[in-house]
Amino acid sequence: MKNMLRRRRGPRVVDPRRRRRREPLSPDVGGQRLESRAKETDVVLHIGLHKTASSYIQGVLAACRDDLRSEGVLYPRTGIVDKGSTSTREGAGSGHGLLSRRGRHRVLQARLLGELEESVPTVLISSEEFSREGDTPTPEKLLDRFRPFRSVKVVVVLRRQDDWIESFYKQVVDQYGNFETRSFEEFLEQRGRHLFDFHTRFTPWRDLVGPENFHALSYDDLADGAAICRRLLEIAGVRGPLLDNLAKVSVPRYDSVRAIDTVGLRILNSHRLEDRDIRTGIARSIYDVAPAGDIELMTADLREQIQQMCRPINQRIEEDWFSEPVPGLRFEREPRASTKTPPTGLEMVDYVDKVIALCEEGLRATRPEAMWTGGGE
User: Fold this and answer.
1) N- to C-terminal Cα distance for the chain?
2) Is the pLDDT of residue 90 over 70?
3) DSSP class of residue 71?
4) Are 67 and 266 in contact (CB under 8 A)?
5) DSSP string over 334-375
6) Exposed, middle or buried by CB within 10 Å (0-12, 13-18, 19+), for 92?
């Protein structure tokens, strides 16, 4: 009977995609040849910070992938996060963010080894997710993922804390999954002190790779994203005309979250919509309905408090990690004067009403039986 059924159904057809999934996914894929090649290859690991032109840099590196290969640098495809339709803004990305997450690192390590080429002695990996606070594995565990390679250099881009924390807060409010609803002041009070201490946060990375393989760059003392990208590529060993043409590379524009947007996004987060697509669509609509003016998050008093707290930290960083002065990181340069024109009270009321209506609509789409009660609970 079994033979008859087999003949009647015809030969078994194997989906090629399924065949690929069944291939061995250990770091030994490719055998000793790949392992020995990794031992002759160095890794340059750009770990962030967030809000230091990382998305721009990753866009440039992706656009120059072939040119980098000819210069002896592999910017791998393994580990790249494709945000696609889940991003609330065009141009958003986090580079090789998959390599920073928990789980599946052996699979990704195997795929990364599979991309190695004999003529390319350096692998350049970039993701601000390596420096994320919270659920990210420890620096020891993250660096252990690159154990097959000959050496690892770590590059971190630091930014003066009074400017950085405002940009970082706006991104945290915008990101899907954390449902951040705290005001800027509450966020500073509860998380600021630890986040500000860059010396304590990144010393473990420096200790693990050694001072000679740890490179700190100052966002405030380099001209722009192209200048930061140039320094990163110089550390990776790139020389020649490619460095001079980085500013001409066209990458998708990435508009930062405005302070006014955080008002609407906090209302959205209070509804705790679990459906990613619905939440993303509403966030995009919130950007569209926001008034033209903007509000201030950072007051003069808050800025002075942050600077007083961080001056000794940044002075120590300059002494220990830099070979040249970094006055921007030390707050010696005045922040750019604000040109924000706040919306009127009526504009704010209208904006909040529109945001609430959008959130109610999203809540009904995900939980038709629910009635809005100031947070969807």
Assistant:
1) 58
2) no
3) T
4) no
5) PPPPP---PPPHHHHHHHHHHHHHHHHHHHHHH-TT---SSS
6) middle
Q: What's the rounded mean pLDDT across residues 22-27?
A: 39
Q: Pick from 273, 324, 335, 276: which is nearest to 302 by CA?
A: 335
Residues 6+ apart with CB under 8 A from 173: 180, 257, 261, 262, 265, 266, 269
- Is residue 125 classed as helix, strand or coil in its secondary structure? strand
Task: Enumerate long-range contacts of 343-351, CB under 8 Å, 24 or more apart.
Answer: 343/260, 343/291, 343/292, 343/293, 343/294, 343/295, 344/293, 347/291, 347/293, 348/263, 348/291, 350/291, 351/260, 351/263, 351/264, 351/289, 351/290, 351/291
- Asked if 329 and 218 touch (Cβ cutoff 8 Å), the reply is yes
Kindly report the pTM of this predicted structure: 0.86
CA–CA distance, 82 with 176 (Å, rounded to integer): 15
Residue 155 has which token pair? 């590059």
Give the Cα separation of 94 and 49 in Å (integer).
11
Q: What are the pLDDT digits (tens) for 237-256?
A: 999 899 999 999 999 887 88
Tell me: the pLDDT tens digits for 91-107? Answer: 567 899 999 999 888 89
